[in-house]
Amino acid sequence: MSSLLRVAVVCSSNQNRSMEAHNILSKRGFNVRSFGTGTHVKLPGPAPDKPNVYDFKTTYDQMYNDLLKKDKELYTQNGILHMLDRNKRIKPRPERFQNCKDQFDLILTCEERVYDQVVEDLNAREQETCQPVHVINVDIQDNHEEATLGAFLLCELCQCLQHMEDMENEIDELLQEFEEKSGRPFLHTVCFY
């Protein structure tokens, strides 16, 4: 594989886990994009049953200003403003995976439900080029600390995959090593464009 591995990182709302990985991978020189698979973007609100819900068209900047007005102290304290500030330096707004028609070599997902949605979406598309894409899931809890640990794990995985001579035949063995090392199960499947 060349260093031009086209990587997508996907979580539910394209806010925390996928953006942390996007940030770290792009700093390491990877060709990376990030996405969410949800119907809406959800951010924690004043109570667990009162999330802040946005459309995918809403920019990170608009979300930031909205939450700043709603409760500056709460959203500073829980790290959401800090996260949105980081996000808007990376790209203008969250993107929905199902609306992206670009092709990738590798799609990394951060929870099993998102993995299922990505695979379902890819399998429902009309096959055009028969280009393989590896979809790999590792569960990452949706909090700041876990997102950072998860991002480094995904980055290490990408660095190993990038140096592989024969990804098709070597990937399963590598994922097994990563499972043993990290103590997390990895899911893997191949879809075609």
Automatic annotation (TrEMBL):
It comes from the Eukaryota. It is found in: Nucleus. Keywords: Hydrolase, mRNA processing, Nucleus, Protein phosphatase. The keyword Nucleus applies. It holds the Pfam family Ssu72. It is an enzyme of class 3 (hydrolase). The keyword Nucleus applies. It catalyses: O-phospho-L-threonyl-[protein] + H2O = L-threonyl-[protein] + phosphate; O-phospho-L-seryl-[protein] + H2O = L-seryl-[protein] + phosphate. One of its GO terms (cellular component) is nucleus. One of its GO terms (molecular function) is RNA polymerase II CTD heptapeptide repeat phosphatase activity. Its EC number is 3.1.3.16. InterPro entries: RNA_pol_II_suA. GO terms for biological process: mRNA 3'-end processing. Its main location: nucleus. Belongs to the SSU72 phosphatase family. Protein phosphatase that catalyzes the dephosphorylation of the C-terminal domain of RNA polymerase II. Plays a role in RNA processing and termination. This is RNA polymerase II subunit A C-terminal domain phosphatase SSU72.
